[in-house]
Amino acid sequence: MTVTDAQVRKLMEEKSKRGKTGLAALKAGMDRDTAAKYLESEKFPSEMTQERSWRTRGDVFEDDWEAIAERLKDAPELEAKALFEALLSEKPERYEPGQVRTFQRRVKQWRAKDGPDKEVFFAQEHRPGEAMQTDFTSGNELQITIRGEPFEHMLCQTALPYSNWQWATKCRSESYLALKRQMQQVVFRLGGRVTSYHQTDNTTAATHDVPSGKRKFNEDYEKLVKYFRMEPRTIAVGKKEQNGDIEAANGALKRRLKQHLLLRGSRDFESEEAYEQWVQGVCEQANQLRTKKVAEELAVMRLVKVSRLLEYTEEKKTVSGWSTIRVKHNSYSLPSRMIGEEVNVRVYESRLEVWYGGDHQLTMERLLGRNKHRIDYRHIIWSLVQKPGAFERYKYREALFPTLTFRRCYDALVAALSGWDADVDYLRILHLAASTMEAEVEAAVELLLEQGAVPLFDRVKALVSPSAPDVPEMPAYRVDLGDYDSLLEEVEA
Prior knowledge:
Blueprint: H1 5-18, H2 21-28, H3 32-41, H4 45-48, H5 65-74, H6 80-90, H7 100-114, E1 131-138, E2 145-146, E3 149-150, E4 154-160, E5 165-171, H8 176-189, E6 193-194, E7 197-200, E8 207-209, E9 215-217, H9 219-227, E10 231-234, H10 244-264, E11 268-269, H11 272-287, H12 291-300, E12 302-303, E13 313-318, E14 324-327, E15 330-333, E16 342-347, E17 351-356, E18 359-365, E19 373-374, H13 377-384, H14 404-416, H15 419-435, H16 438-450, H17 457-464, H18 482-492
Parallel strand pairs: 1-7, 2-11, 7-10, 15-19
Antiparallel strand pairs: 1-4, 2-3, 4-5, 6-12, 8-9, 13-16, 14-15, 16-17, 17-18
Helix pairs in contact: 1-2, 2-3, 6-7, 13-15, 14-15, 14-16, 15-16, 16-17
C-alpha cells in the first residue's frame, strides 16, 4: 500500500511523543519496517519519489519508427489510425490489430516532442455593447414532445458576450425568417437597445457563396441588420472558434434546459408556443443572475426607435387546375373552389397563411426542403369521386390515405373486389370522412376489420350514420280557456 505524506507526518508526531517506533507505526497505519525507513531518512514520500527513466517493456515499433517519423514529417495531418492500418498491411507478420492503442500513444508523444507547431488560440477581452452573437443549434437531443408526438426543432439563440445575457426562440430550420424573428425579439426584449455589430457564423440564413470562395451577406439579411442600426459581422470560413462565445452559450443553454426538464418532471408540452414560453422562462431565470453586467452593457448600448417588422414574406400565387399552389419549391393543396383564382400567401417560418379578397382562408404547416407536397384529401375528394379512374395514377395518391387504418381499408377492398370497384368504394368512404367526421369513419373501418368483415361503403356508412330513433306519438294537449275566466272572477271578487 502506498504511504502518504500525511501518514509519515503522523508517524513523526507519534514518535516524538512516545519514543516508540512500533506504537508510532501503528498509530500512523503502516508497517514497522516501513516506518523505520522513513524515520531514518527523515523525508516524506513525495521527496523520495524518483521519476522512472526506463521502459517496462521494449518499443515494438523501434525498428520502423524512423520511417514512420519521416511519413509524419511529410504529412503531419496523417492520423495515427490510418498510419497504423498501412503499417499493418505492409508488415502483417510483425504487427497485430491489438497494438493500435500503443501506436496512437507513440504518435501522440512524437507530435508533442518533434511535431509541427499547433495553432494558438488567444483569449479575447469582451467589451460591453460591442456585439451580439446569434447561432442555431439542434434541440432534438432534449427529446421534447408536443401532445405525445416527437418535436423535431432547432433553437435560435442570441448572446451578449460581455454579460452572457441570452435569449432563444424555437424554429424548424436555419432560415432567414427564423433569424429575423429572433433578432426582433432580442432588440425589443432589450428595450430597443442594440450593439455595434450583429455576428453570425456562415449560416445560409445570413450569407451565401461567391466565386472567390468566400461568403457574402444575403441582401435581405444585410437590410435587416442595418434597419436595427447595426453592422453585420461574420467569421472566417472554417473558423468556428471565432464564434466560440455563442457556441459555448448553446451548450450551456441545453444543459440548463435538461436540468429544468428534470425538475419539471415531463418533456411533453401542450403546444409549440407553450414550449417556447417555457424555454424563454428558463432564459429569464438565467439572466436574473447577470443583472449587474447586463446593466453595464445596456448603459453603453445605443437606443434605436424602430417599429416591428412583419415576420412573414408575401407571395401571389394562382391556384392550378390540380387545386394546388407551389410555394418555396413545395406543393400545397387548396379547396377546389379556388382553382384559377389568385391568392396571397403569407410565408412564415413555420406556417403558410392563404388570403383571398382580404379574408383569411386557411393556415397550413410549412414544409421543409424541396419538391415535397402537403395534400388535404378534403380539398379534392368531391371531384375525385366523380372521376374515380384518376385515383390509380394520381401523382399524390399516398396523401389520400390519411391514416394507416384507411390504408388497411383500401388493401382489404382490393383483396375482396376488382380494382375499379375497390377504388370506387374507397373513394366513397373517403368522401364520407370528409363530409362527416374522419375519426368516426376511421373507428367504423377499424371495427369491421377487427370483425374480419370487408369494410364496404354501405357497411361503414351504416355504422357512422345509424338510423334515426322512433319518436313516440303524443296526443296534442288541449287548453281549457275556462280556467282563465275563473281566475279573473277570483281577482274581481
